[in-house]
UniProtKB/TrEMBL annotation:
<dbReference type="GO" id="GO:0032259">
    <property type="term" value="P:methylation"/>
</dbReference>
<dbReference type="InterPro" id="IPR051419">
    <property type="entry name" value="Lys/N-term_MeTrsfase_sf"/>
</dbReference>
<keyword id="KW-0511">Multifunctional enzyme</keyword>
<dbReference type="Pfam" id="PF13649">
    <property type="entry name" value="Methyltransf_25"/>
</dbReference>
<dbReference type="InterPro" id="IPR029063">
    <property type="entry name" value="SAM-dependent_MTases_sf"/>
</dbReference>
<keyword id="KW-0808">Transferase</keyword>
<feature type="domain" description="Methyltransferase">
    <location>
        <begin position="52"/>
        <end position="151"/>
    </location>
</feature>
<keyword id="KW-0489">Methyltransferase</keyword>
<dbReference type="InterPro" id="IPR041698">
    <property type="entry name" value="Methyltransf_25"/>
</dbReference>
<comment type="similarity">
    <text>Belongs to the methyltransferase superfamily.</text>
</comment>
<protein>
    <recommendedName>
        <fullName>eEF1A lysine and N-terminal methyltransferase</fullName>
    </recommendedName>
</protein>
<dbReference type="GO" id="GO:0008168">
    <property type="term" value="F:methyltransferase activity"/>
</dbReference>
Amino acid sequence: MSLLPRSAEEFSSAEYWEKFFKKRADKAFEWYGDYNRLCGVLHKYIKVHDQVLVVGCGNSELSEQLYDVGYKHLTNIDISETVVSHMNQRNAERRPGLTFQQVDATQTPYEDASYQAALDKGTLDAMASEEEGILARSMLTEVGRVLSVGGRYVCVTLAQESVIRLAVEVDSVSCQK
């Protein structure tokens, strides 16, 4: 399997990510930049005491680096059982409070308004690659549900027009409720 999918729509497929992480094994993959590149923005919008939902964490080192500088309330989720298992093993001894859960970002088990921030580094882009954007809309709606009033959705994205349009559309609908 090539690391690149045959079509952009594969980025929204759980099967693609399972194969991707089985092939990558323990090699971290940083989509769109690492902690050093992003820390200024992250520290501005995500506070150390915040309950943070990390959506589509993959095997990025970002959560580990945030944990190491004091962010102890991170809930890391990913659709891939392989990557979640690997990340829990990788952090069990050194970062016992840092856990990873296999959760579908479109249907999380978390209570309404239970997070002050959600961090997304490439997940919206991956889900928006599905032709009709149904998964992306579902994920954005779910993130909105679990964020508290005044909560922040920090999204690292390529900001393609179609992705921005989806985000604005979902936000507009949720504001009308």
